[in-house]
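explain this:

___
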Amino acid sequence: MKKQYLWGAVVVAALIAFWAIQQKDGSIKKLVDNLNLGPLTLVSSSPTPSISTSATPKSSVKATPKATVSAGTYGQLVDQYVGKRIQFDQYCQANPRSATFKNDTTIMLDNRSGDARIVTVGGVQHSLGGYGYKLVTVSSAVLPKTLNLNCGAAVNVGQILLQK
């Protein structure tokens, strides 16, 4: 009987806290946006090596250096990279499956799974933690260029077309 009262008290306290937050900020989105998650940090602070083959001219996908990444919350970055974000779901499927960007565009790779992922863009691997993200610049010396997307063991889950 005492456990029922304890659980009831916990539920009531949670509801009161939820109501208080709603009254103060007006929405849960504001609460999430106001969480201070600190500045964005990348796995690598220097560009990754270029992709090249002997038969074709140089093309590359490089990580954006730390110094050029603006700090902000996840929500702010999602807003900033509207139309330039590729999400990978719990099954490692890309959304959108196909995207077209101008050469030397910085895009957001966004892992929406709790599992860490290795995402490959045009042959260059990028490590994304669970619910992690990374900003990368996609470029090629030869245009147009199609970059295939792989996620973990799932190959060709999407592609990026680079244009002038």
Remarks:
- The first helix runs from residue 2 to 25.
